Amino acid sequence: MLRLEKVNESNRRRVVELLSSDVIKHAFAIYDLQYKPEYTTMYLALDEGRMEGYILIYTGLGFPSVVLECRKGLADKLLDYAPRGCFILHAPIDSIPVVRDRFPEANYYLEEWMVVRRGEERTFKSELVRRLSTRDDADQLAHLVQLRRSVAVRDVERYMEQIASKPTYGVFLDERLISYASVLIQLPQVWVIGGVYTHPDYRNRGYGTLVTSAVTEEALKNAGCAALFVRADNYPAIRVYSKIGYKRFGEKVWVDVGLGMKP
Questions:
Q1: Is residue 88 located within the same domain as residue 147?
Q2: Which of 11, 13, 31, 180 gives a 20 to 30 Å CA spacing to 238?
């Protein structure tokens, strides 16, 4: 019989063990439950002890980020726990009809989930690339991120925290940061890479390949594989990731509910 269970201190370890049956698929949930529980709310759908799906709400980004993962037919029930107001939702493809019915004004973007395993990577090196580490680096990162207009901008202190805890690499030309890539999730089995971005004036020159190579190399020194999401219609980025060795692992839909953001 299906039942919904809220994850708390008493059952968190058991839930992480259930999710660990597919660490890549559930990387965000595993990481948030273990390392960011103060920002994480999760409801699990169970049927005779089997995990059938979940909805996770993470509030550590300045806006709610929601992960929906479930078998077909459960989306409507789990979305009862979605936040009110504006948020970003990551959901399975087959849940789109239900999500559209719930949030008819939302914007939808198809994303590919790509993975490269240790030993399968083909990385490219350059003296123009180094890891970000200083306050000036954080300040330059904040200014570069502002150009994206599709992500929440944070203050320099938050970027200092980011580059201190999450390996972030950049291409510097005349000491100016013009391209970067960072790590979102660090687990022993997989690191998830995100935030790959190049200044519009410097695109199509291979800089995205260089920073993605650097952060992928760091990831594969510490985990068995590296993973990332990319918008399905971002063909230049997909070519870059494929060149490095990333292969398609799956797909999800990225849903903007009222925030005006894009992946």
A1: no
A2: 31
